[in-house]
Task: inverse folding
């Protein structure tokens, strides 16, 4: 007789210690608790949620929404949090009554269904971590949560797990704006008092991770921790660098560096102990990913365990095509951070020696690297500038300036000055050096010039972090008062001075003045709240 297949049950990991009924989830057909990747694959394939690609990833479609829907996100106005929240255009209120209605309709919808649960943590520092339970209608979103948050491998720890924040996501449950008072069929509703997030009508994985980020941004400043929309890595001798930046500016790409230890690609906290990742995974853009320019991320797209969102796949050969943008430009890979071979096993690192602020300036104006004074750093942090390009449609050449305070307004639950205050204080205390790095266009801007080559940006980052720029003369650029190195090893001198890359210098000057005015207009909102030194920056 041949060898018997060995099957082992780990019953401890199959039933949540805290029953789902505690979350009002009742009459379900089955609950799948903390399933491993192979079992989630089996479930997703059985339920026809996705396809197994030739090289191992699971490929899914997120539905009508392939990116975040910031206008469909609301915070519940309730006594426990309302006087702390930064209400306005970003954080729009939802009544507690309306929340309860949508919540109950969602719980009713989930009856008779299979439910997937992942119990995990947000926050790598045990002093500040938040136990979260992610309850999903689909197996693939359970894989998303398992890949993105901090896993619990230890069965005793799982057995004693008590969730603090609950997130329920049901992409196929659509709101009805007339009854539910949502803006559309999609909704992301955050209730700080109930410690509950409900998401429906959209399957985009980014909503799950960014709403947990919102929770951290609300809770941590109240514990003296600075939550940041940034990636982070550390040198071999422990020097830490953080990279702030809005979507598409290069946080994920530039933090993956074979010479440095990856701490995290998107969300961190800065406490008195140093920095820590909020997550346990990465969520990389993979459109037209180049194996030469981004080898570490590229290899993650060919691996068992990786979840690919909206990537094109040939149903016959099961080959994926990273160049295909027919579903969206925003194709994504979600994978656990240990898929990057030099990732930190703890997600914890020291106080940042360098702070990099990334911007993707499509106007072709800002220098590719500049050293910032502490006041300039605060100014750029409060401004949160980047430019969006109008997608890939032919004929659209006009980029759009975006100012998103703290480099992440959609996720900042408290007033921006709270975060800016924490940055200023920590930057001063730890004497961090700040840099502005433009990963956008040169040579005349979007539609005329080309995007700064990623190998140049990497070289500039490593020159800044490695101290190579300390011996180089700097000159002041006339429009924004930025201090720009005149040389950077491995980068042509001309690249460092954007004006020199433009075919027409007058056109550069006009564009620079225009951008400067946009900065000034945007900063008016902060002028009454900041010190004189900041008001004089520009
Ligand atoms: N010079 C550059 N620096 C950084 N990224 C670049 C550069 N040129 C092109 N890119 C591309 O821009 C995108 C940056 O996205 P990503 O790193 O995911 O940003 P974020 O994590 O900040 O949202 C990637 O697709 C990357 O390949
Ligand atoms: C997940 C997101 O973050 P980023 O693009 O910064 O990686 C997002 O904006 O949807
Ligand atoms: Mn990213």
Result:
């Amino acid at each position: 007789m041949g060898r018997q297949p060995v099957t082992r049950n780990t019953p401890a990991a199959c039933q949540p210690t805290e029953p789902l009924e505690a979350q009002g989830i009742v009459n379900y057909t089955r609950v799948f608790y903390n399933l491993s990747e192979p079992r989630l694959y089996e479930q997703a394939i059985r339920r026809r949620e996705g396809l197994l690609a030739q090289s191992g990833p699971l490929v899914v479609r997120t539905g009508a929404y392939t990116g975040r829907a910031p206008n469909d996100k609301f915070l519940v106005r309730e006594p426990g949090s309302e006087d702390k929240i930064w209400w306005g255009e970003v954080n729009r209120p939802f009544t507690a009554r309306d929340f309860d209605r949508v919540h109950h309709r969602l719980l009713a919808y989930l009856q008779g269904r299979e439910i997937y649960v992942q119990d995990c943590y947000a926050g790598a520092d045990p002093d500040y971590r938040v136990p979260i339970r992610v309850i999903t209608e689909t197996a693939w979103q359970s894989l998303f949560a398992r890949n993105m948050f901090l896993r619990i491998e230890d069965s005793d720890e799982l057995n004693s797990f008590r969730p603090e924040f609950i997130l329920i996501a049901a992409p196929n449950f659509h709101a009805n704006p007339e009854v539910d008072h949502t803006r559309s069929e999609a909704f992301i509703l955050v209730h700080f008092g109930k410690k509950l997030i409900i998401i429906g009508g959209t399957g985009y994985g980014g909503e799950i991770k960014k709403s947990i980020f919102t929770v951290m941004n609300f809770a941590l400043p109240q514990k003296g921790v600075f939550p940041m929309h940034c990636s982070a890595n550390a040198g071999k001798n422990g020097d830490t660098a953080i990279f702030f930046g809005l979507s598409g500016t290069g946080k994920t790409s530039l933090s993956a560096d074979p010479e440095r230890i990856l701490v995290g690609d998107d969300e961190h906290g800065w406490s008195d102990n140093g920095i820590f990742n909020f997550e346990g995974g990465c969520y990389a853009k993979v459109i037209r990913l180049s194996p030469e320019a981004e080898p570490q991320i590229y290899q993650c797209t060919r691996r068992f365990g990786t979840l690919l969102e909206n990537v094109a796949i040939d149903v016959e050969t099961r080959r994926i095509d990273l160049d295909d943008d027919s579903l969206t430009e925003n194709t994504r890979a979600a994978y656990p951070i240990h898929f990057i071979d030099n990732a930190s096993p703890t997600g914890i690192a020291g106080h940042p020696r360098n702070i990099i602020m990334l911007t993707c300036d499509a106007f072709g104006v800002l220098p590719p690297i500049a050293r910032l004074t502490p006041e300039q750093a605060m100014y750029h942090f409060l401004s949160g500038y980047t430019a969006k390009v109008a997608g890939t449609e032919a004929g659209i050449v006009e980029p759009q300036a975006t100012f998103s305070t703290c480099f992440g307004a959609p996720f900042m639950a408290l007033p921006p000055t709270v975060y800016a205050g924490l940055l200023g204080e920590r930057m001063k205390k730890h004497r961090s050096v700040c840099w502005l790095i433009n990963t956008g266009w040169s040579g005349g801007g979007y539609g005329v010039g080309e995007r700064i080559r990623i190998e140049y940006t990497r070289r500039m980052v490593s020159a800044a972090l490695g101290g190579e720029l300390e011996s180089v003369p700097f000159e002041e650029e006339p429009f924004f008062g930025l201090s720009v190195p005149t040389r950077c090893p491995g980068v042509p001198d001309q690249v460092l001075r954007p004006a020199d890359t433009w075919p027409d210098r007058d056109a550069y000057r006009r564009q620079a003045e225009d951008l400067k005015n946009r900065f000034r207009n945007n900063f008016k909102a902060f002028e009454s709240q900041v010190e004189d030194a900041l008001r004089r920056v520009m």
